[in-house]
Amino acid sequence: MNQDNIVIRRERPDDRRAVENLVRESFWNVYRPGCYEHFVLHRLRDDPAFVPELDLVMEKDGELIGQNMFMRARIQADDGRDIPIMTMGPICIAPAYKRQGYGKRLLDESLDRASAMGCGALCFEGNIDFYGKSGFTFASVCGIRYHGLPEGADASFFLCRVLIPGYLDGVKGVYAPPEGYFAAEQDREAFERFDALFPPKQKLKLPGQLF
Ligand SMILES: CC(C)(COP(=O)(O)OP(=O)(O)OC[C@H]1O[C@@H](n2cnc3c(N)ncnc32)[C@H](O)[C@@H]1OP(=O)(O)O)[C@@H](O)C(=O)NCCC(=O)NCCS
After folding, report:
1. Which CATH class, in words, describes the domain spanning 6-195?
2. Would you report the helix, strand and coil content of the chain in percent, each value rounded to 5?
3. With a 6 A CB cut-off, is 40 part of the ligand 1 pocket?
4. Domain ranges of the chain
5. Which of 67, 87, 90, 95 is the most buried (most CB within 10 A)?
6. 92 lines ligand 1 (CB under 6 A)
7. Is the CB of 32 under 6 A from ligand 1?
8. What is the model's pLDDT at position 151?
9. Whose CA is nearest to atom 31 of ligand 1?
């Protein structure tokens, strides 16, 4: 506990449904009408690539206000090597606490813990306006391409951060997100059944959504 009563700790099994609800509340109608991320988290926890040590929640005065999680992933290098990295997210902050610096704090602490575990680099999809403040850059700058993206297409959503200096030096290659991130698209029925366990919420088509 520190001055403003923030604690970042590992998720416990009895936090799970509350964390999924937090993810649902935070992502709802942000990128699409409704959201999938609570189902993705639910599924990824059982994935062999899930990193339990980095399955983190943020509490303020004992209230759950944020979460982040990591998966082991890899870059398929053009020279044939497989470069182990991690990918990250969903990460979120409860709607009432957004844009007050908590997301950056959770992200920076998560990155410190990933570094301490020996993670060399991270790749994922995100907004440079937020992640750029924590040292992320466009993955293209690091020589990494996004799986399936046509050459010349806008790749500014695809970000990278090197945690061990030099880790990606001389590496060129392709990154594909772990399959589990597409759980909701791949298993619509299971997603709908899962989402029905949560309080009803209205799906809205809003400007700025990606999907
Ligand atoms: C994205 C999210 C985790 C950021 O957490 P946060 O606590 O709101 O962000 P912070 O207050 O720490 O932001 C730090 C800086 O990042 C930038 N930033 C944060 N969110 C941003 C956004 N949505 N768009 C543009 N810039 C953003 C801003 O520069 C911000 O500083 P400022 O508020 O002084 O301008 C949070 O808003 C959230 O849960 N959003 C919905 C879910 C989501 O999009 N998750 C990320 C998926 S990749």
Report:
1. alpha beta
2. 35, 25, 40
3. no
4. 6-195
5. 67
6. yes
7. no
8. 87
9. 99
